[in-house]
């Protein structure tokens, strides 16, 4: 054991001196580095929150103390109540569907050869701003099938199974032998065999005529049969053409359905040929010819996606389109961390793929699924851009959400007190969800 004298002997190394920081203690250095961030946090977060809380207790002018009146308006104002109801719908459905789709995509793309490319395509909408996505889906949901993709697909499917009319605007002209009946038209007098019948109509635009329509032809009389012509009795140009007689430039109503009605009962029916001519058997003698309402029903124009009843589900659909990729990427990362031995053991024990997915994969992914769902819940509580851009003015009240109502109260209606109350209420809704998410993340870190 060395003695103090030995320690101070010549040649022995001197004990190291404690090094002092040039800028002072470590706490001082940490405070200096954190100061800019703390100043920004205070200016951009703490001060606005504190000001909003204080402002929510004052009236519209900001001079008179209103107490809790602004908070009472949250549950009495019709617009805010609609926004609350829609926010509940958003919180329940949007995160659930987006998370479920992300789970399905993540699991399926593991076994697809081009899984990475598919993930890239699904995730790409995240690179688009909410404003751009709103403009895109405003066009997608356009009522006109020639513009809106959603209605173009919907009308195409509908018309595959239900035949649409080619003559929705057709109607009799002046001095016509037809009169209205039950949405269609019927001849004023009975028809007789051997006497051709003229059924002139007007009102169909030339570009709306059936593709197979040909030049109308005057029907020839046939013994023991009813013959006639149904055609567009209109020729462009003043004084051109003869009413009640097919002219060279006039087209026949190809496919027009004609019924022979006698004593209120249909005794015979047929369809006009491409040139508008038709023939009915002898039993139609003495009957009246009817053009049923089915010939003139309006063409199916699809769904009113942005109408009062569908506007909220339609906007939620656009949100899911954007955020399903986000959910898929996070869940795929969690899926990559699952031990493959557990999945193989389940298959060896006789479990099929559905059982492996339901009883092994999903339980192991439960923490990731919870984080994704809670993150999306926080996000949808603040949704504003999509609703503001997609919902037209006529349906914006029906699609209203709290963030949009905050904007409207604060800027359009000049009620900053109520707007501040909505902001505080939104903060109170978000805090528990954020606390749950942070707590779960800390628990995962400790594991």
Describe the protein's architecture and organization.
There is one protein chain. By secondary structure, the protein is α+β, with helices and mostly antiparallel strands. Among the domains are: 77-154 and 305-414, Orthogonal Bundle (MetI-like fold); 178-295, no CATH class. Helices cover 49% and strands 9% of the residues. It has 13 helices and 8 strands. It has helices at 4-7, 26-55, 69-76, 78-109, 115-123, 130-140, 149-161, 311-336, 340-348, 353-381, 385-390, 402-412, 416-446; strands at 178-181, 184-187, 197-201, 226-232, 257-262, 265-271, 277-280, 288-291. Strands 1-2-8-5-6 form a 5-stranded antiparallel β-sheet, with no helix packed on it. A 3-stranded mixed β-sheet has the order 3-4-7, with no helix packed on it. The longest helix has 32 residues, at 78-109. The radius of gyration is 37 Å and the shape is elongated. The model has no long low-confidence stretch (mean pLDDT 86).
Q: What is the CATH-assigned architecture of the domain at 77-154 and 305-414?
A: Orthogonal Bundle
Q: What is the tally of beta strands? A: 8
- Rg computed from alpha carbons, rounded to a whole number of angstroms: 37 Å
Across the major sheet, the strand order is 1-2-8-5-6
CATH topology of the domain at 77-154 and 305-414: MetI-like fold
* Major sheet summary line: 5 strands, antiparallel
Overall, the morphology is elongated
CATH homologous superfamily identity of the domain at 77-154 and 305-414: MetI-like
Order of helices and strands: HHHHHHHEEEEEEEEHHHHHH
Low-confidence stretches: none
How would you classify the helix and strand content by structural class? alpha+beta
Strand % is: 5-15%
* Helical residue percent band: 40-55%
Helices, by number, come to 13
